[in-house]
Amino acid sequence: MSFKLPIFDVKNLSFKIRDQIILENITFEIYEGEYIAIIGPNGGGKTTLIRLLLGLETPSSGEIKIFGQKLKNFKEWHKIGYVPQRATLVDENFPATVEDIVKMGRIAKRGLFAGASSEDRAKVHDAMVKMDILDLKNRMVGTLSGGQRQRVMIARALASSPKILILDEPNTGVDMLSQQRFYTLLAKLNKEENITILFITHDIGVIVDDIGRVFTINQKATICNDPKQILSCEEVSELYGINAHSLYNHKHEH
After folding, report:
1. What is the CATH number of the domain that holds 83?
2. pTM value?
3. Cα 47 to Cα 221: distance, rounded to the nearest angstrom
4. What is d(CA 132, CA 52) in angstroms, rounded to the nearest whole number?
5. Domain total for the chain?
6. What angle do CA 143, 128, 161 make, to 5 degrees?
7. β-bridge pairing 69-70 and 61-66
8. How large is the average pLDDT for residues 145-174?
9. Has residue 3 been placed in a domain?
10. Per-residue pLDDT tens over the stretch 9-64
11. Residue 58 sits in which domain range?
């Protein structure tokens, strides 16, 4: 009998700044092919959790393993694609084309000073095709709309052929039509490419359509394994301080 190691194996994770507890005693596992949303109020610790998973912050206590390795020993960062918060907010005069930006995603795979190989060029091309931005490859990134920039940043993350894609509130500054297109593309990557998706969102209404699990984060974590019931969970009403039933009407039409 064989089994797969989880991509992330988090045990009793806590993080505090001086005497302020940001995250407390969080435990979960994330497996290949999952599609997980992280929700919670502002200041609840969502982005901090992501930064801990990526080794950008050091836990106060607890343990994080990535593909079976302790985080401090993990080196294969090309396996993790990351789109940070506000990644679409680019200076209009930023001197780079769409293709230049996507090429940056290969650095984690080949190193900073290595020349581009035929494989690099193929992966960059493939990432742009997947995000439907090939026709934009020679455009200056500063001239693009928020939705176009969003897809460019995801293509950059995909260029390293990651096993998991982590996105921190990727719809910031993006119009509703682009958001709907974004969710369709994410679902396609998950189902057709078997890329694990982990993303922070305030858009609870999308959860019931495609998501496999929901992590609600507000200092502590609640794991919901049936997103179709999340809108009636008492924990979510308590988490946001509102009646979660009313959020059902915000559900997107696909």
Report:
1. 3.40.50.300
2. 0.83
3. 13
4. 31
5. 1
6. 130
7. antiparallel
8. 87
9. no
10. 999 999 999 889 999 999 999 999 999 999 888 888 999 999 999 999 999 999 99
11. 8-250
